[in-house]
Amino acid sequence: MLVPEQILRTFTQNIFLSMGCSDAHAALAADVLLLSDLRGIDSHGVARLTGYVRLWEKKRINATPHITIVHETPTTATVDGDAGLGLVVAPFAMKLAIQKAEQYGSGWVSVRNSNHFGIAGYHALMAVEKDMIGFAMTNASPLVAPTFSNERLLGTNPMCYAFPAGNYPPVIADMATSAAANGKLEIAQRLGKQVPEGWIQDANGNYTTDPHALKNGGSLLPLGSDREHGSHKGFGLSATVDILSAVLSGANYGPWVPPFVAFLEPPTDPVGLGIGHFLGAMRVDGFRPVNEFKAHMDNWISRFKSASTIDPSQKVIIPGEPELESQAERSKNGIPLIDAVVDDLNTLATKFGIAPLAS
Amino acid sequence: MLVPEQILRTFTQNIFLSMGCSDAHAALAADVLLLSDLRGIDSHGVARLTGYVRLWEKKRINATPHITIVHETPTTATVDGDAGLGLVVAPFAMKLAIQKAEQYGSGWVSVRNSNHFGIAGYHALMAVEKDMIGFAMTNASPLVAPTFSNERLLGTNPMCYAFPAGNYPPVIADMATSAAANGKLEIAQRLGKQVPEGWIQDANGNYTTDPHALKNGGSLLPLGSDREHGSHKGFGLSATVDILSAVLSGANYGPWVPPFVAFLEPPTDPVGLGIGHFLGAMRVDGFRPVNEFKAHMDNWISRFKSASTIDPSQKVIIPGEPELESQAERSKNGIPLIDAVVDDLNTLATKFGIAPLAS
């Protein structure tokens, strides 16, 4: 089904309102999910709405959080999300980082007691809109094994760096620190397809191409896939995300991160509160005049776009470019939803007594 | 040859003094190179001394730089290294970042007009010693092709994140953003060995295991090796390093980065000054009390060290652990130098009329 953006936005907002979110929070949370769908990152958009509702039903998400700053200096802070939706907690924290950057050049906020924050790119882009460089990371439910291990100790822990440009759109490097994001695995599972070697290992630590191995004690592999190809670097990046997001803020880290799915219970021996994020903003003009920076960004982008390529039909892709193309196309033509997602959403609609997505 | 640390340190210092460096700069530059050798990163230690000298002879390194702050806010700055040794310019910038962090919680310095800065870990550790989190990155001579390209447009662009711990040593994730660092390739070249698939491609963009392919128009591959295994993420990380280090500071970026080797001339159409670095420091107590953070770091480390492993004889390695073991061992027993390096160093000794490394 192809759903116009505005219809899906209103529907999503209504679900959040039905959970008891304030108008402002419902609009913001819907905005984060919609941007993901618009940008073609289907795994992080409205397809997750049912997941958020189930966690709220289990009282693991608080629809009316009192988000507070628990510690700060002029340019750093720790925020407690009061078990709220990461979709509203992370923008609160990023706004704070931006305010600090406006005053002092940069701002950095570590967040505890939060939940899944959607796509990292949403939060980093908030800084870019102010001619700042944006950083966003989050830890996540343990699915990834460190190099040499067969134990799931890390999430797919994404990091995002976003840079404003001039005539070109911003450069946005937004990536899971695992070889493959869990969303790609879910797609393979749904289609009954095998996955490439180097994405996952089975419970014994052997490479497997079976996307269901994860359900049977297997684990995702860090970016780099094996030691020889630098999986220890993927592990190092993932560890960095975990430490900045959770050890620094007082959230749960490593294997203690509570699962996003409601059918798995959180560990009974937590080491912190909820999951953690880390957000940052730096003013470009804290380093050089904005127009100079943007002119050189354009030159950087243009040089990489015109790089010689192995296959003449496949140009070099600037980080963030495919997502922006998707956003332009889907804003115009609507957002494609697979039947399973439509069914899930309409089950929610029935539950809350709101109008279903019509077909 | 096994050379005691102090002897190699004095020798190295004397070389820098012979180039005309001040006492303080010679001691600092030697300290950076020695830490690399002590930590087992032989490719970035005294083995590079001849390279620095050759660039100085070509007047591409200034032994008596006037390092200046050209732009700043309370927590950000751009530093011009006046074509000095990166080995002294980067510590200047990191000191500035630390001062800003002491006053405002965090400090971030982008550097232009510099040269190779040794190991990123040295600079990041300066912050760790002050109970801060340290960041260090640098761009470098183009050797790496972005995903889909066969053109060398990026350096191995390392990023380093360093975190203080309590009873355990600090966690230091210090990594090239390519699948393999150039140093590993040089080792294979020297030994006449093939390298694994996924490290390099030939001039046409085909995978090759020939470590000499780089000299014949080939290129290194980003971390992830190919698109399917996330090489676009390695490219995104490398792009991030390039932008923070050079587009932000006014240094050369991408294919314009001047080569570290003296026999290759810098591009005749520079887009900035020298190479660029990016350094940062955040006070741990800007987020939570230091003792709390360190206790949780210890818990994090201890949990990952005790992870179940695929091969019982191969434990999970905490980022920074092998380097620290090497440092303990080599501080005590001396630094092993291969004959080629000893010969190079003694050629320098002859050139400058100082005592050779005796055997």
Q: Could you explain the architecture of this structure?
A:
Two copies of one chain form a homodimer. With 359 residues, the first copy, chain A, is α+β, with helices and mostly antiparallel strands. In chain A, 38% of the residues lie in helices and 15% in strands. In chain A, the strands form three sheets. In chain A, strands 2-3-4-11-5-6-7 form a seven-stranded mixed β-sheet, sandwiched between helices. Chain A has a three-stranded antiparallel β-sheet with strand order 9-8-10, with no helix packed on it. In chain A, strands 1-12 form a two-stranded antiparallel ribbon. In chain A, strand 3 (76-80), helix 4 and strand 4 form a beta-alpha-beta unit. The first copy, chain A, starts with a strand and ends in a 7-residue tail after the last helix. The relative contact order of chain A is 0.16. At the A-B interface, strand 3, strand 4, strand 7, helix 7 and helix 8 of A face strand 3, strand 4, strand 7, helix 7 and helix 8 of B.
Q: What would a concise description of this structure say?
A:
The structure is a homodimer of 359-residue chains. Chain A is 38% helix and 15% strand.
Largest sheet of chain A: 7 strands, mixed
Q: Give the tally of β-strands of chain A.
A: 12
Shape of chain A: globular
What share of residues of chain A is helical? Answer: 25-40%
Largest interface: A-B, 88 and 88 residues
Structural class of chain A: alpha+beta
User: What integer is the average pLDDT of chain A?
Assistant: 96
How many DSSP H or I helices of chain A? 10
Measured distance between first and last alpha carbons of chain A: 7 Å
Strand content of chain A: 15-25%
Identify the quaternary structure here: homodimer
Strand order in space, largest sheet of chain A: 2-3-4-11-5-6-7
Q: How much is the radius of gyration of chain A in Å?
A: 20 Å
Residue windows where pLDDT falls under 50 for at least 5 positions of chain A: none
String of helices and strands of chain A: EHHHEEHEHEEEHEEEHEHHEH
